[in-house]
Design goal:
It is built from 8 helices and 7 strands, in the order E-H-E-H-E-H-E-H-E-H-E-H-H-H-E. It has about 270 residues and is an alpha/beta fold.
Length: about 270
Amino acid sequence: MSLFDIRGKVAVVTGGSGTLGGSISKYLANEGVKVAVVGRTQENVDLRLGKIEKAGGIGMGLVVDVLNVEELKQARETILKEWGRIDILVNTAGGNLPGATLTEDQTVFDMKIKDFNKVTDLNLNGTVYPSLVFGEVMGEQKSGSIINISSMATMSSITRVPGYSVAKSGVEIFTKWLAMEMATKFSEKVRVNAIAPGFFISTQNQKVLLNEDGSLTERSKKVIAKTPMGRFGSIDELNGAVHYLSSDAASFVTGTIIPVDGGFSSFSGI
């Protein structure tokens, strides 16, 4: 049996109806994993679930607000009733809001506090709450892998996104803290890690990174200039890291943050 074999495992993907979560959900299902797609709207959940089932995978769709602990607990019970266990949790729910993103002519004092709070709540607590609810099952099982999503916005101060940067920095220390907690109080076979994606063009950031004619914005040019590989990432290039952290190949890996960024975090730009 291969160290990388993850067939038959049960995964929960929060934000599974989104671009990143949808890609990861489909990939895991293609690798023989049973996947619970967790999202906020029935339409998008059904769309992602349909793609999994069309490809011959096994999945279930759950409409859940990741900031609602009771809804998360109900989802947990549904999954356990159907599949009996939870082996993998991938927390992809998150994102930014226009009101929490400063324009080029604004300062931090122009930031909308309400939107700052929404962004920090979604990205930080939207990772913490599912980790506590689904991670409890892993603690009882004495095995499992939690995979969080960090960001290049934690490596250094990226302009215009203070709320997102603060929240993702919180995700990183929570990842390390929970890794310690699970290994010392439950089992060394319960692992907690995070992936820090570099820059990928998605529906959320397209207007910031691309002009209407498809050409690069000035912000995009700065990103590419600091990325040794000289390009944006493709969303499916995160799947290998997810697979690795989900498998026994990573049995001695916990509390880590793995950049998947084309070298962005390692390059000074000079």
